[in-house]
Amino acid sequence: MSIFEYNGSALVAMVGKNCFAIASDRRLGVQLQTIATDFQKIYQIHGKLFIGLAGLATDAQTLYQRLVFRHKLYQLREERDMKPETFASLVSAVLYEKRFGPYFCQPVIAGLGDEDKPFICTMDSIGAKELAKDFVVAGTASESLYGACEAMFKPDMEPEDLFETISQALLSSVDRDCLSGWGGHVYVVTPTEVTERILKGRMD
Amino acid sequence: MECVFGLVGKDFALVVADTSAVHSILVHKSNEDKIMLLDSHKLMGASGEAGDRVQFTEYIQKNVALYQFRNGIPLTTAAAANFTRGELATALRKNPYSVNILLAGYDKETGPSLYYIDYIASVHKVDKGAFGYGSYFSLAMMDRHYRSNMSVEEAVDLADKCIVEIRSRLVVAPPNFVIKIVDKDGAREYGWRETIKDTQVPAA
User: Fold this and answer.
1) Contacts of B94 (CB under 8 A, 6+ apart)
2) What share of chain A is helix, strand, coil (3-state, %, to 5)?
3) Is the residue at A63 inside a domain?
4) Domain membership of residue A118 as a residue range
5) Which regions span the lipid bilayer (chain B) (predicted)?
6) Any idea what the CATH number is for the domain that residue A102 is in?
7) What is the 3-state secondary structure (H, E, C) of A39-61?
8) Cα separation of A179 and A30, whole Å?
9) Among partner residues B89, B129, B136, which is closest to A35 by beta-carbon distance?
10) Could you tell me where the beta strands, DSSP code E, fall in chain B?
11) Residues B120, A61: C-beta atoms closer than 8 Å
């Protein structure tokens, strides 16, 4: 089994009309055994920037701690929050530093940039950025997620529609992957508010 | 086939571990205590390679004590768990420790808590956790019978159920177990569950 499939994860981010949504599954496993069904994979960096970390849980936790540290330093020096594009470049640089001994993580970054324009991107474990205008996926269920998102996505969805779409895409994809699932965690972010919802899907 | 498991009850946390010290097919001793008292209100049940287990848990115990000497107040359970994770994570890509840890503690402000810390430094706060081959049986029993806010008698009864399952279903089941508890009055040994007693060697 690949090291990326040791803990199991599913992550997806989608762009809507002046908003974005980012969703993850909730399983923490050790290969075939499920340890917990409430594991957090999406972290908030600042009011309008979220990062989800798929892959090996220990590296996701280490990477998150390093990124929060770097962002807090940035906030102290620049006296403002980082733009999502800048943060994505930071994550890419941090990952490429470990080019020959990488963190086994795939980040999914979603944020509202200048004039609250939604920004999403993903990258591989050594920091190759992949910008997209519609959706990005990561994790053990990524192949199913690509299919589900491609079929269900429409541009310029309102927050409620976006929530429905991303939830359906996530739940139907993790149902085809034994290593991810046990519910879902969805954040829908607009310029004025952040809505966090827990999904109940197939608990198996 | 080391078995460690633990659970959180009403204002207490319980950790149970087997007590055999084994090298390949030989059982060196059957009363090896694998649950270390980190400080007055913390228990660390550890399983894994014998040398690493003792060295690493003693290192954590001494550093927890050092913090209390330097700062005049003890670490919280969450802080101790994150410190342990940090040490495991730093060593992971240099000289990894093969130790799985269940860290149970009681804090005045937040009550009892249990942390699952993998040998690759993934940490997660759980209500019930287990390591080793015994986890297949103990986690299943706890999934069936565990409720939140159990009393000490109910929790020990559940632990006994798990021990019975391990003894009857695991091919190289360890004969003896130790149960330790931590609550507002501190961390202490609760009892042993022995099927084999070491014979006393008469004094020369």
Assistant:
1) none
2) 35, 30, 35
3) yes
4) 3-199
5) none
6) 3.60.20.10
7) CCCEEEEECCEEEEEEECHHHHH
8) 9
9) B129
10) 4-8, 12-18, 21-23, 26-29, 35-39, 42-48, 99-107, 111-117, 123-126, 128-131, 177-183, 186-193
11) no
Total structural domains within chain A: 1
Of A33, A57, A101, the CB nearest to B122: A57
Rg (CA), chain A: 16
Report the 10 Å Cβ neighbour count for A82: 20
- pTM for the model stands at 0.94
Q: Tell whether A3 is within 8 A of chain B (Cβ).
A: no
Tell me what percent of the residues of chain A surpass a pLDDT of 70: 100
Which residues, other chains included, contact B40 with Cβ-Cβ below 8 Å and sequence gap of 6+? B74, B186, B187
ipTM: 0.93
Nearest Cβ partner for A35 among B92, B93, B124 = B124
Strand ranges in B95-195 using DSSP code E only, listed in sequence order: 99-107, 111-117, 123-126, 128-131, 177-183, 186-193
pLDDT digit string, tens, across residues B145-154: 999 999 999 9
Instruction: Say yes or no for a CB contact (<8 Å) between B89 and A28.
Output: no
Domain boundaries, chain B: 4-194
CA distance B123 to chain A (A): 7
pLDDT at B50: 82
pLDDT in tens, A71-100: 999 999 999 999 999 999 999 999 999 999
**Is 90 exceeded by the pLDDT of residue A131?**
yes
B85, amino acid identity: R
Q: Verify whether the Cβ–Cβ distance B89 to A62 is below 8 Å.
A: yes
Count of CB atoms within 10 A of residue B25's CB?
Answer: 6
Q: Which of residues 66-85 of B touch A (CB under 8 A)?
A: 85
Taking residues B4-12, report their average pLDDT.
Answer: 96
Q: Does domain B4-194 have CATH number 3.40.225.10?
A: no
